[in-house]
């Protein structure tokens, strides 16, 4: 959800309740466009972050402690001079604009009490943090906007601070819902989403879409195609939304990509109207802090994973091209036996073939039906030479087939391995897990070891994922191929159960049986985890093979994670998020 006027109201209400009257103890500026204030209020210490980052502008409480520069920036020193030690009187915003003002009472150089204002403008790439004196003059800002950048609104020291141009819209509290579809409002609106967006102040496109969704009306339906029932549903949904805003009935939450709750999609002030996985929070600040920390972590993981991912994808592409080339070569020599047959038939009929003949029609005595075949000949060569020509072609084709078949098998094995690495990368949730896969690829010769990134022998390897089944059995899931090998070949007992998706890259899964019979419910849960931690995570009816560990072997020279197995059975499962989360959240104590 964009940081719109509704989010602004919600966060201002929260911060006023928690911080009004508090003392600003310290001010830091960890980033060029971000400041952090340590505030003591009502017996508690709070860390308030204000960011003017173009991608993530925001204002909220945070628990994240960033490293600060050794020398504080100029704006930070000015903040310390003018507001450090001051009292935060209150926090306000104006007419649902994304402009938040912190009114701060402090003592000036003469010992007099004065009020400074810190304005946080949350407006995408135009976001800014501006410090004003009591006369509404700009002391300084994290971003300077001179006349070359904007001829309408300069943000420079000593200039008078001006608000951005106001929007010609109704405040939510003043919106006459019954008149939302009148002729004046629908001018220029193509659909209900645009109508609400153009009419009500503080609403983002997402908010308008969510209102339409809760009304059960597609947000892009042309205005002219809406019937009276559709309009009434939208009015009711809009009225409910406005009532929540007026009564401050907010229910902050984060919507996640899946139930692992590791990859956030967005944050919201209200619980979403559509079916998605989300987690509710008491405070919007907590939701915002968690959202931006997770997103930052995932972005950093993505950056750290980038070069590894590129190596793996390039390797997969190379293997796929080689596979296509080898299959084409095998197709070219697929009729090699015919070459040998022609040579033998020419030899058997050598005295019947006339000199200078362009072809020979001879009886194929290898055929059950004894039909005749026509054999092309080189008219300038003898029958004996033609026979030798076919034998040489056969010998070459046979050799090509043997070599290419071997190369194809090696390439397919490498492709299977790299696809398994790609799957494991997709499941990485920490830097250590990425580093372990990087080291695996270094060991396999895909990445060159650099001195500065030399493997730290002191690093303790990460542990496999551990779950407890509904029946109390321990289930272990490997997070990378080296871990898969260790789990299957070293950790697991011979009578433990081993599971893996059938012909699909994925993790090794072990059920620790302790010589007990494994119930079907535990087997189903372990198979679900195997499917979930595979490249078939989003598929239905995923086949999962299972057998005892004693039936699993690692061929000599096989790459990490590559094994062969026998005497197995197969179970089909669908790794639905709800099922997986039920297993993840199972608190059953391991007692088998």
Give a written overview of the molecule:
With 592 residues, the chain is α+β, with helices and mostly antiparallel strands. Among the domains are: 5-141, ibrinogen binding protein from staphylococcus aureus fold, CATH 2.30.310; 172-250, Helicase, Ruva Protein, domain 3 (Orthogonal Bundle), CATH 1.10.8; 336-405, no CATH class; 465-584, no CATH class. The chain has 13 helices and 22 strands. It has helices at 5-19, 74-82, 183-186, 192-199, 205-215, 228-246, 284-332, 336-348, 383-426, 431-443, 481-491, 520-532, 577-584; strands at 23-31, 34-41, 44-51, 58-61, 87-93, 99-107, 113-121, 128-132, 138-141, 253-256, 264-268, 278-280, 359-363, 372-376, 465-468, 474-477, 497-501, 509-512, 542-548, 552-553, 564-565, 569-573. It has a six-stranded antiparallel sheet with strand order 15-16-18-17-19-22. Helix 5 packs across helix 6 (228-246), helix 7 runs antiparallel to helix 9 (383-426) and helix 7 (284-332) runs parallel beside helix 10 (431-443). The longest helix has 49 residues, at 284-332. The protein is elongated, with a radius of gyration of 35 Å. It starts with a helix and ends in an 8-residue tail after the last helix. The mean pLDDT is 89.
